[in-house]
Design a protein that fits this description.
By secondary structure, the chain is mostly helical. The chain contains 10 helices and 2 strands, in the order αααααββααααα. The N and C termini lie far apart (70 Å).
Length: 275
């Protein structure tokens, strides 16, 4: 009994399984056409990447976070994905704090000197990352993978790119499920027990990764053979050809996106004082 309990203490498979089984298309923007949300999110991210005032992306992050949380039911999975993005933002902030490229005012020394200008630039970059990630997560929670792929096809992206993207999105879930199965199998054999060192756990995880890579190549070969047997060619399309007409709510959403982009540019890039 104790051995089983110790074997389940370290379990990254649960996180991967939760992320790949989350619900899609349940956000507050689920009724807005993906052909509006997809380019809108892309342009908003470009605008956020150009802002020079940290409070603008910080405000966008808080607003988008509240909007997303108010419209979804799988908050645990959403917060897990947001945590990974927050760790990336924290890493950027720490690295920039040690950079002397923006100034030479030392405020603290932790192994190496930390600069005030580096802290300011790191905070700006971190808020940019958080805001961009929150926008992407709002898009992902609001629209399904199929809807976004259909939107890309409406924008006349190359057929080969869209078909490859569709297959990749499909088999990311399949590969993650195989990883979870292999992880639990090795976990049942105490391969990740708390009695083992982190080096041994990483070695066992590397064994799973190697086996998963071999299985992925084998599955891709069998997939190619099955598609060719069904008459698939370079001119074939996996998706259909039906596109809905834009509704009134889509035009309203487009106007709101334009207002948001204009507000970000005016407050974060140009600045009201320069107008």
């Amino acid at each position: 009994m104790n051995l089983t309990k110790r074997a389940t203490e370290w379990n990254p498979a649960d996180i991967i399984g939760d992320l790949t089984k989350r619900q899609e298309g349940e956000g507050v923007l689920k009724n807005v056409d993906a052909r509006v949300l997809l380019p809108g999110a892309f342009i908003v991210i470009l605008a956020l990447s150009a802002v020079t005032r940290w409070y603008v992306p910080a405000a966008v992050f808080i607003v988008v976070l509240c909007i997303t949380l108010s419209g979804i039911t799988s908050r645990k999975n959403y917060l897990q994905m947001l945590t990974f993005g927050s760790l990336a933002a924290l890493f950027i902030f720490i690295v920039q704090s040690y950079s002397s490229a923006y100034g030479s005012t030392v405020v603290l020394t932790v192994i190496w000197p930390i600069y005030a200008q580096g802290i300011a630039s790191g905070w700006l970059y971190a808020t940019r990352v958080l805001a961009c990630i929150s926008v992407l997560l709002l898009l992902v929670e609001s629209k399904s993978q199929l809807e976004m792929t259909e939107a890309l096809r409406w924008f006349k992206l190359p057929r080969e790119m869209i078909n490859l993207m569709s297959l990749m999105l499909r088999y990311v879930t399949v590969i993650s499920e195989e990883f979870v199965t292999m992880f639990h199998a090795q976990q049942a054999r105490l391969g990740f027990s708390s009695r083992l060192s982190w080096i041994k756990k990483l070695q066992n995880l590397g064994i799973i990764g190697g086996m998963l890579l071999i299985r992925s190549f084998d599955r891709s070969f069998r997939l190619e053979k099955s598609m060719m047997a069904r008459g698939y060619t370079q001119n074939s399309e996996i998706l259909g050809h039906t596109f809905k007409r834009f509704a009134k709510k889509d035009y309203i959403a487009t106007a709101l996106v334009v207002l948001v982009i204009g507000g970000i540019i005016l407050t974060g890039v140009v600045g009201w004082a320069q107008l």
